[in-house]
Amino acid sequence: EVQLVESGGGLVQPGGSLKLSCAASGFIFSDVAMSWVRQAPGKGLEWVSSINSIEEHGIITEYEDPVKGRFTISRDNDRNTLYLQMNSLKNEDTAMYYCTQGWRGSSLFGRYRGQGTQVTVSS
Fold this sequence. Notes:
Blueprint: E1 3-7, E2 10-12, E3 18-25, E4 34-39, E5 45-51, E6 61-63, E7 71-76, E8 81-86, E9 95-101, E10 117-121
Parallel strand pairs: 2-10
Antiparallel strand pairs: 1-3, 3-8, 4-5, 4-9, 5-6, 7-8, 9-10
């Protein structure tokens, strides 16, 4: 059974930083591309970033424009953990953040999500 458990969210002031983690189990983590998505209050699910499985092509990442240069996605295949380092946070980054399997747009993307971790950016 696929399990994804997000953590690391919290309340932070604008300009601050947070690092989210996603502990994965129930599948061969190193074989699967992974993504972060978020959902702001009253809005739909929004893709944030994807990272490939690394093994074959080295590290490949992609980011949505609003977070480019501020967020960094990474993974530790030995720990079966996905990360999202978020710097220079803005009020508009406030959302529930989820990790999910698959590269954005792939058939696997969004099939499984964890319970999410809340990020609130406010002064």
